[in-house]
Design goal:
By secondary structure, this protein is of the alpha/beta class. The chain has 19 helices and 18 strands. It folds into two domains: 17-348, Rossmann fold, CATH 3.40.50; 350-503, Isoleucyl-tRNA Synthetase, Domain 1. The longest helix has 30 residues, at 351-380. Bound molecules: zinc ion. The site of zinc ion has 6 residues, from loops.
Length: 530
């Protein structure tokens, strides 16, 4: 299978897409980090569909490995029962939040384990795997042998725990044979790994091979029985990463689904920076040995810090998306995630930060624009969208701002910068708010010759709301629908196609009956606790 030369997309970021979230490690319920990646994937899929492209998404749970056995033992249950429960929690959480990946892969699914075994067998027969004795320091948290550079004061840098010395017979995936090819591939394809800092990090890993070497891909069953058995040696199970990465193939229908090839041709992975190495190094080489082209893009985001610490189970500072929904409404939380994190960099979460962003952007700016516009239409135009008269420079400037915003959002999404896309959309809301302030239809209404000004300014504001609903549809689907309904066009988003729909400035029919409804985003008042 060959990938068409390179992104000769006539419109960048507008074509078909297969996007994956990581296959999340199922040892605890979803937290803010999982929620962020999942929300970005959901937004990207909705955006591409709005552009009229096919989009397919896969999420799932990674259920094998030593850490899972450890977590299940702590709870006093068998690994299979434990992972079934956690996997169900992930699936239910996304469903409750209105996020529906097209496929959800559990790495314990028989379809998946068959794929893993078939691939292992092929790679083994092709001479990519060899058996060696291994002597080293092993971290259960990382589920691998550590190298010098993984250690800080004798402890695993990521897990702050002491590794144990181990000597065992392991099967090694001879990935070092392809480091030159991979380095060359990354150098020739600047957009293969984005943002650029992570591409540089991957290249640095490849330059300093002391940190890499070949990859141990087996664990003796005597030590770990919970995993996919190696088809060529039933005394060993497969290393958890080798198994988990293949889920991106399983989810897309590999090997038999006729849709697989087209999906794989446009695959983009979303990950957090903690799993850069398996995705940037192991995975492209695995794909090469399987006979598949590398993925098209790897998008890497930073960490969420809560109370200035990295989110982790051991620190107990995980933020539950369901708790956030119950407290603030899910779209307020979703907005915060997408807007606060510059994709690629770390960001901080606190309820104070959430409240201040949501109040400033959604309650005071967007929500206020919706309610003041519709209140004025109810009061001065009989509850119907008015027809504009004598449009002038001020109206043309607002219309031009909507067109420019559509372009800015498309550009930001083509380079996966949802934070910039939302900033542009909220700027448009500010522009329409300022326009209303300047036109002051509430004053014009009281002047003898002010009627045309009232109708023109409110028609313009309503058109602005229509454009905002369309532009927000991928980011805040419920709020976008809420605006459309209040504006009296509940079917607006059903089959809308961007960018044309958002740029069809005068498509809102005069006479449409509006429905003020409740406040779109109530202000968040934080309880003060002593
Ligand atoms: Zn570790």
């Amino acid at each position: 299978m060959k990938r068409s030369a390179d992104p000769a997309d006539p419109t960048p970021g507008a074509g078909p897409l297969y996007v994956t979230t990581p296959i999340y490690y199922a040892n605890a319920a979803p937290h803010i980090g999982h929620t962020y990646t999942t929300v970005v994937a959901d937004t990207l899929v909705r955006w591409r569909r709005l552009l009229g492209a096919d989009a397919f998404s896969v999420s799932g749970t990674d259920e094998h490995g030593e850490k899972m056995v450890e977590a299940a033992a702590t709870r006093g249950v068998a690994p299979a029962a434990f992972t079934a429960e956690i996997s169900a929690t992930f699936q239910q959480t996304w469903a409750e939040l209105g996020i529906a990946p097209d496929a959800f892969v559990r790495t314990t699914d028989p379809t998946h384990t068959r794929n893993v075994q078939a691939i292992l067998q092929r790679v083994w027969e092709a001479g990519w795997i060899e058996q060696r004795e291994y002597d080293g320091l092993y971290c259960i948290g990382c589920e691998r042998f550590l190298t010098e550079r993984d250690l800080v004061d004798g402890l695993c840098r990521d897990h702050e725990r002491a590794p144990e010395p181990r000597r065992e017979s392991n099967y090694f995936f001879r990935m070092s044979r392809e480091f030159d090819w991979l380095r060359d591939h990354i150098e020739r394809h600047p957009e293969f790994i984005t943002p650029e800092r992570y591409r540089n990090e991957a290249l640095a890993m490849l330059r300093d091979e002391s940190g890499l070497g070949d990859l141990s891909i087996s664990r003796p069953k005597s030590r770990l029985a919970w995993g996919v058995e190696l088809p060529f040696d039933p005394e060993h199970v497969c290393y958890v990463w080798f198994d988990a990465l293949i889920s991106y193939l399983t989810g897309a229908g590999y090997p038999d689904d006729p849709a697989f090839a087209a999906r794989w041709d446009v695959v983009e992975h979303l990950i957090g920076k903690d799993i850069l190495k398996p995705h940037a190094i192991f995975w492209p080489i695995m794909l090469k040995t399987i006979g598949l082209p590398p993925y098209r893009r790897l998008h890497v985001h930073g960490y969420w810090n809560v109370d200035n610490r990295k989110v982790s189970k051991s620190l107990g500072n995980m933020v539950s998306p369901l708790a956030m929904r119950d407290r603030y409404g899910f779209e307020a939380f979703r907005y915060f995630l997408l807007r606060e994190m510059s994709f690629g960099l770390d960001a901080g979460f606190s309820e104070e930060a959430l409240a201040s962003r949501v109040n400033a952007d959604l309650a005071n700016n967007l929500g206020n624009l919706v309610s003041r516009t519709l209140n004025l239409v109810a009061k001065w135009c009989d509850g119907r969208v008015p027809a504009p008269e004598n449009e002038g420079d001020a109206e043309h400037a607002v219309a031009a701002a909507a067109v420019a915003t559509t372009d800015a959002v498309a550009h930001a999404m083509a380079t996966l910068r949802p934070h910039d896309a939302l900033a542009a959309i909220l700027d448009l809301a500010s522009t329409v708010n300022r326009y209303l302030d300047t036109q002051a239809p509430w004053k014009a209404a009281k002047q003898p010759d002010g009627e045309a000004r009232v109708r023109t300014s409110l028609a313009t504001a309503c058109r602005g709301l229509r454009a905002l609903a369309l532009l927000l549809a991928a980011f805040l689907p419920n709020a976008a629908q809420g605006i459309a309904e209040r504006l009296g066009v509940p079917d607006l988003l059903a089959d809308a196609r961007l960018p044309d729909a958002a740029q069809a400035w005068d498509a809102l029919a005069p006479g449409t009956r509006i429905d003020k409804g409740a406040a779109l985003f109530p202000r968040i008042e934080l309880r003060t606790e002593d």
